[in-house]
Amino acid sequence: MHDRILNFRDIGGKKTPHGEVVRKKFFRGGPLLNLDESTLSILKNDLNIKTVIDLRDDSEVSKKPNHEEGFNVIRLNIIGDQNVGNANPEELVKMYEEKTSREWMIHLYENIIKSPYSQKLYAEFFDILLNTDDGIYFHCSAGKDRTGLAAAFILKLLGVSDTDILDDYLLTNELSKNHILESTKMMSDEEKTHVLPFLGVEQDFILAAYQTIEQEYGSFDDYVNQALKIDQAKINEFIRKYTVK
Known about the structure:
Mean pLDDT: 93
CATH architecture: Alpha-Beta Complex
Shape: globular
Radius of gyration: 17 Å
CATH superfamily: Protein tyrosine phosphatase superfamily
Strand order of the largest sheet: 1-3-6-4-5
Number of helices: 12
Number of strands: 7
Distance between the termini: 27 Å
Low-confidence stretches: 84-89
Order of helices and strands: EEEHEHEHHHEHHHHHHHE
CATH topology: Protein-Tyrosine Phosphatase, Chain A
Largest sheet: 5 strands, mixed
C-alpha cells in the first residue's frame, strides 16, 4: 500500500511486555491523493477505515487535498502557525541558512512537545481515538513528524517497547525512499545534505521529543496526564479498547 500512499503502514500487531497485542485499528502515512478504486476499496472495506485525522495546516491541505468521499475527515492542525518544514524542496534549501536542517528539526520536535496549542490538539486526537470503533487513518504531509509523534504516543500508551516504537518511527526512511529520491534528484550533493533531514527522520529527532518531555514534565506518564489531560481512567480504557490478549 505504501507504493500508492506515501509512507503508509499499519501500526497494529505489536506486542507489549505483558503479552497484549495492539489491535489493527491504526494506520498512518501521508495524504490520500489520487487514489484509484482498488486502493479506496482496500482502505474502506479490507481495513475498515472510516475516520481520517488530518494533522496538516490550511496551506498544506489546499495544496494536496485529501480524497474525502466515504470518510469522516477530521482536521487537527497540530502545529498551528509554526512552519513545519514540509515545504517544496526549493524552499527547504533556503531554510538551512538560519539553522542547520538537523537543528531545525530538533527544534520543531521540542516546540511541538512544549506548545500548549499542540498539546491541546493531541489531547483532542486521543479523544477521537477513544470514541471511534472502526479503523483510523491519521496523517500529515509526509506522515513522519506530527504523525510520527502521534504514533509514538499511541504505542507508548499501549505499553509497546521503546525499541519497537523507534523501529516503526525509522521505517519512514525505507517507505519514503522513492519519494525522497524523486524530491532530491535535481539537487547538488551539498543541497541534498541539508535537505534530507527535512524529508526523512532520524533517531535524534524523536529522542529530542522524549528528552523535552523528561525535562519539562519528568516522565511520559506525567506529560500525558498534565499536558494531554489523559488521566489513568482514560489510559485504562484506551488499553482495553486497543489491545487484545
